[in-house]
Amino acid sequence: MSASEVTKGVTAYWDARAPHFNCAASHVRAPDVWKEVLSAAFASDGPKDVVDLGTGTGACALAAAALGHRVRACDGSAEMLGVAGEAARKAGLDVQFIRAFIAEAPLEPASTDIVTIRNVLWTLERPAEALEVARRILRPGGRVVVLDGLWSAAPEHRSDYTAELARRLPFHAGLTEADAQHLLENAGFIQVTAWQHLFSSPPYPGGVPAFVLSAIAATGG
Question: Any idea where the Methyltransferase type domain is (predicted)?
């Protein structure tokens, strides 16, 4: 299986899931909680430029826009973007959606203040690449917010791929907080801070150990 076949396989999976994905989604069931957690993790003193990488059905993008930020969001799945766009329209939120894979997204260097990456790193063949993109497009001192979890802890609730595709994904089982911190530090981020304690109850079913981490793009180097 080539790299392009992996990408196509992942995209086809999410295209197929898009129409029903939001039926039990955490950010749909508890949008105010997600807004509160993201607002804290953003630590912003006013409207900022936000880019949501791998936006899916728009969880972070919609929350960021509802908080008053200027938001762009990209994803390779046309079907997922369709759902996200309709959700933004119904909520009266202004989000610029871009159909593009993370590594190919037309995002200028040093063009944003905050990057969000929610439940994406586990589904990438090269997760470090997404963090490299985040660092490239962040302005000096900009902030990345990574949200993910150890999805194998609740196999009855998790998303899954074919065995052949799963073998190509280094974090197919999901990520621990330590995994994410290691990835962030290797990508040149500093001041890693956890925010998951702000959830009043576990955000996902099955007791999945989920985390929300923010980190700052180190200057220089």
Answer: 51-146
Residues whose CB falls within 8 Å of the CB of residue 141, separated by 6 or more in sequence, listed in order? 216, 217, 219
Q: Name the percent of the chain in helix, strand, coil, to the closest 5.
A: 45, 20, 35
Query: How many CB atoms sit inside 10 A of residue 27's CB?
Result: 23
Please report, for the chain, the start and end positions of each structural domain, with discontinuous segments joined by +.
3-217
Q: Could you tell me the fold of the domain covering 3-217?
A: Rossmann fold (3.40.50)
- What the block records as the tokens of 195 is 């925010």
Residue by residue, DSSP assigns 72-118 as EEEES-HHHHHHHHHHHHHHT--EEEEE--GGG----TT-EEEEEEE
**Model confidence pTM above 0.90:** yes
Cα–Cα distance measured from residue 101 to residue 93, given in angstroms and rounded to the nearest whole number:
23
pLDDT of the residue at 23:
47
